Amino acid sequence: MSEAASRAIAMLEPLLGDRLVTSQAVREHHSRDTSRLAPAMPDAVAFPRDEAEVQAIVRACAEHGVPVVPFGAGSSMEGHTIPIKGGISVDTREMNHIIAIVPEDSIAVVQPGVTRKQLNVELRETGLMFSVDPGADASLGGMASTRGSGTTAVRYGTMRENVMALRVVTPDGVAIHTGSRAKKSSTGYDLTHLFVGAEGTLGIITELTLRLHPQPEAVSSAVCSFASVRGAVEAVIETVQYGIPVARVEFLDEVAIENVNSHSGLTLPVAPTLFFEFHGTPAWVAEQSRIVEEITAGHGGSGFQWSTDADERGKLWQARHDLYWATKARRPGCELHTGDICVPISKLAENIVAAREDIDASPLIGQIIGHVGDGNYHTAYLIDPHEPAELAEAERLSERIVERALACGGTVSGEHGIGTAKLKYLRREHGEAVDVMKRIKAALDPKGIMNPGKMGQEG
Ligand code: MLT
Ligand code: ZN
Q1: How far, in Å, CA of 250 to CA of 223, rounded?
Q2: What atom in ligand 1 is closest to the CA of residue 416?
Q3: What is d(CA 212, CA 163) in angstroms, rounded to the nearest whole number?
Q4: How do strand 273-280 and strand 248-252 relate by DSSP bridges?
Q5: Best of 323, 330, 422 to mutate for ligand 1, by most ligand atoms within 8 A of CB?
Q6: Among the atoms of ligand 1, which is closest to the Cα of residue 338?
Q7: Contact 45, 5 (CB under 8 A)
Q8: Ligand that comes closest to the CA of residue 260
Q9: By residue range, what is the domain housing residue 169?
């Protein structure tokens, strides 16, 4: 451990006591995320309970020039929380209080360690819900930091649309608030949305004011198989362009269907497939299902089945959310090399079809899934961590989807973020704007202590 880190730790011990941990096991847990990326150990892990403790940690680290790496549930996918330069990992799990729920204004105020499922359990009796649903039961602070989303973004938006205000401890240890509870505002720089997606490189989020949505009166789900990948994606494009307010529309290719069938006990036909969900009144969900059934039939869809059965729906969406683990289970000992591309919806079919052709021509096993209503899709290649040739092949395939996405006006990440894995693409996507990002970082964090070596310093 560096001398600077020991001094910062010594400063914090009297305040945090046994909530400042240097044991091997706890440091190891905070040395990785869910990605295949190499772990790196923090010098210590702090478990603050409130904003004042976060301020004390940041001040101690600023004084001694020690890295500070915010950590939520550890479910990020691109290396965001890996402390590549050591320092103190700040785990927000004990900041897990729901501070206020204000149904009249459809907002909730929470500490950053509250998870999305915890908030929804609390909201059950209010008639409201928090919509953003990444696969993992992620922490809301982490979801804001990564500008995360999931299956419902097509209808309710990502974290960008659902975070109204924040409290943040900046790299000098000052606590600020950004945004307000008002639905709109035309005052000041939009700092809320500077911190949403900053991946902990500009400060630590200590409180979030979130937008809630009414729980739908009726919900129906539907599954439909297609003769081709193109048919499935074109059906989605037409559905979105028609203006059907689908709550969810997920694409799973044949490989993904095999994986959900074997892992989650489903018996779906092995073919390119769409999972839909519709929200509204009973009559409106029936109408949406009927219109979408017609659209899918026009694109080679078959076996369209819709249902309002809550158990059936629960099983379907749980299987979808478990897909990451289902895919890993397919080749024991393997790692997943994941991709996360988002393109304008009109370009989605050509992008996914080309990505599937690339995988078919490759020796790797790979699948494509997608939150396709947003133009967002994921690739996942199963690679043997001891076979450099497999990693090289996965990187080659990734390069190709990135090139295609950028060539058609898309982005190299719809929801998984930059972390360390995507840093190499930042300049290709943003050009000279990366220099502006670096100037913002240098202005807010002149000592470079906040999640160093990542966005804002590199790329
Ligand atoms: C998902 O959509 O399931 C997540 O983003 C994780 C993944 O890429 O598999
Ligand atoms: Zn996803």
Answers
A1: 10
A2: 5
A3: 10
A4: antiparallel
A5: 323
A6: 8
A7: no
A8: 1
A9: 98-214
- 79 and 8 within one domain: yes
Same domain for 208 and 229? no
- Give the domain-ending residue among 185, 214, 243: 214
Q: Which residue's CA is minimally distant from atom 3 of ligand 1?
A: 135
pTM for the predicted model, two decimal places: 0.96
pLDDT along the chain (459 residues), means of 10: 95 98 98 94 98 98 98 97 98 98 98 98 97 96 98 98 98 98 96 98 98 97 96 96 96 97 94 97 95 97 92 93 91 92 96 97 96 97 94 96 98 97 96 98 98 96
Per-residue pLDDT at 385? 87
**27 contacts 45 by C-beta, under 8 angstroms:** yes
In terms of DSSP bridges, do strands 98-102 and 107-110 run parallel, antiparallel, or are they unpaired?
A: antiparallel
Mutate to test the pocket of ligand 1, among 33, 321, 338, 342 (most ligand atoms within 8 A of CB): 338
42 vs 23: CA distance, rounded Å = 10
Counting from 1 in the atom list of ligand 1, the atom nearest the Cα of 378 is 8
Ligand nearest to the CA of 339: 1
Domain stop point among 190, 214, 238: 214
The answer to whether residue 356 sits within a structural domain is: no
Atom of ligand 1 nearest to the CA of 323: 3
CATH number for the domain that contains residue 231? 3.30.70.2190
pLDDT at 305: 87
Domain identity same for 191 and 117? yes
**Residue nearest atom 7 of ligand 1, based on CA coordinates:** 324
Question: Are 46 and 58 within one domain?
Answer: yes
